[in-house]
Automatic annotation (TrEMBL):
Family to which this protein belongs: Belongs to the OSBP family.
One Pfam assignment: Oxysterol_BP
Name of the protein this chain belongs to: Oxysterol binding family protein
Gene Ontology MF term list: sterol binding
Chain intervals for the UniProt region annotation (Disordered): 18-37, 148-172
Basic and acidic residues bias: start-end ranges: 18-36
PROSITE patterns cross-referenced by the UniProt entry: OSBP
Superkingdom of this protein's organism: Eukaryota
Provenance organism: Dictyostelium purpureum
InterPro entries per record: OSBP_sf, Oxysterol-bd, Oxysterol-bd_CS
Example of a GO cellular component annotation carried by this entry: membrane
Length: 476
């Protein structure tokens, strides 16, 4: 497909608003065209942005600043989690990969695949409304799994390409699905919870994300606190994943673009393996955009180095052996998996796409006035609900606080059994087909937390995740 990434986003959002008769899917295209994600603002919006920012102090929190709608990406932050699953088939068969060293390389490859899908310029997703939810799924099978085999020699006996779904017998795991549910559990501070289940391929993910926006004078930064934990159920391995910072450049001078900068890590305590990444900022006069370098470490000793551009190609080499490199990630050689989302006319009132549909439609129509009006309506409604609640503690619908952890109420971390009922999702609840959803609801007791308690939780910065199975057995 020769459309730009930005056009893909706009076209798909337009489908989400207009074409409600069929389940929604992101086009997977035969190939992806990668361009520098830059934009030049017209004079009027540029002056408006400069006028707004000129009144701000350096370091101010932007989460409470009403930013103009022309810098909004037409989707919620909760929907942005899907970027990390458009190549989720990289993780197919991950539990059958022979060694921990190979597994962390494949997980690193999957992680790096989630950055290049982005709009042009500086586009910030909507701040989710308190209680907003998002649901989607992906279906992986032998026909759409990535075959990343190259002509590289397997000189290091570490087959990065194993993550395309092979098992011990060398055959493909024929089918699996990943289901994602996300919920905004706090508005101030903004906190999002996400849970992904693909038990057929032996993994779940759970995380709490707290993005913070800061004004830096000539740029803006979105710092992502929190982490996602990828759990390999059969192996009882947990990989704790953190995220780099997104910086908006050129908001006053030059061309608008978003740079990914700073450190990110993938850590598995059980295997003593880490993947340490550094997303590099381009200097004013030299260098390139979208460069990342990193190290795979075992017991704090480097085994592999990797470097390249996350929107093009990244190569990996052994640290102690000179020789040719292997391709860790090649953006031009992959196809996207379709993100399947219910049609808007089948969504609940507080689902992301339905909730924001009027704002999204106005942005797609380049009608900034209507976009601002509709956005203000949503924010005013939220403030009204807060006043009506008074001192009543907000109770998240899908996630529950246990000790210092936020967990998905209906998580199932038991091992997949051949022939078991298919997992489905209704009302944000992932459960076995044929199971009574009402019985599941009755087994889970509500547990709310005030925004002050959430703030305290974020300061603790614990990273170990706990899960609850449908029968409420706490699994550590």
């Amino acid at each position: 497909m020769e459309d730009t990434i930005n056009n893909n986003i706009l076209e798909e959002n337009e489908k989400h608003i207009i074409q409600n008769e069929q389940p929604q899917e992101h086009d997977d295209g035969a190939s992806l065209k990668n361009e520098e994600s830059t934009e030049i603002l017209e004079e009027e919006p540029k002056n408006l942005l400069i006028s707004l920012l000129s009144e701000l102090k350096i370091g101010v929190d932007l989460s409470r600043v009403p930013l103009p709608t022309f810098i909004l990406e037409p989707r919620s932050l909760l929907e942005k989690f899907t970027d990390y699953m458009i190549h989720g088939d990289i993780l197919c068969g991950i539990c059958k990969v022979a060694t921990p060293l190979e597994r962390i390389q494949i997980i690193t490859k999957w992680y790096l695949s989630g950055f290049y899908f982005r709009p042009k310029g500086v586009k910030k997703p909507y701040n989710p409304i308190l209680g907003e939810i998002f649901r989607s799924k992906w279906e992986f099978n032998a026909a759409n799994k990535i075959n990343n085999n190259t002509n590289n020699d397997n000189h290091n006996n570490s087959n990065i390409n194993s993550g395309s779904g092979s098992n011990d017998s060398g055959t493909l795991n024929t089918s699996s699905q990943a289901i994602l549910v996300a919920e905004q559990i706090s508005h101030h501070p903004p906190v999002s919870c996400v849970y992904i289940s693909n038990r057929n391929d032996g993994y779940t993910m759970s995380g709490v994300i707290n993005p913070r926006s800061k004004f830096l004078g000539t740029s803006m930064a979105v710092i992502v606190d929190g982490s996602i934990t990828l759990s390999l159920l059969e192996l009882q391995e947990e990989y704790v994943i953190t995220f780099p910072t997104a910086c908006a450049r050129g908001i006053i001078f030059g061309t608008l673009l978003t740079e990914i900068v700073g450190p990110a890590t993938i850590v598995c305590k059980k295997t003593n393996l880490t993947s340490e990444m550094e997303f590099k900022a381009k200097s004013m006069f030299r260098g390139e955009y979208n460069v990342v370098s990193g190290k795979i470490k075992l017991n704090n000793e480097t085994t592999h180095n990797f470097t390249g551009k996350w929107d093009k190609k990244i190569e990996i080499t052994q640290a102690k052996k000179k020789g040719s490199s292997e391709i860790l990630w090649d953006c031009s050689a992959v196809k996207k998996n379709k993100t399947i989302i219910r049609p808007i006319n089948q969504q609940e009132e507080f689902e992301s796409q339905k909730l924001w549909q009027k704002v999204t439609q106005a942005i797609l129509n380049k009608n900034q006035k209507d976009a601002t009006v509709e956005k203000n309506k949503l924010e005013d409604d939220q403030r009204k609900r807060v006043k009506e609640r008074k001192d009543t503690v907000w109770e998240p619908r899908l996630f529950k606080k246990i000790g210092d952890q936020w967990v998905y109420k209906y998580a199932n971390t038991t091992l997949y059994q051949q022939g078991e009922p298919k997992e489905i999702e209704t009302e944000g609840i992932i459960y076995f087909e044929g199971t009574s959803i009402e019985n599941l609801k009755n087994k889970v007791e509500p547990c709310g937390a005030s925004e002050n308690e959430i703030s305290i939780f974020l300061e603790v910065k614990v990273i170990k995740c706990y899960f609850i199975d449908p029968y409420l057995n706490l699994i550590q």
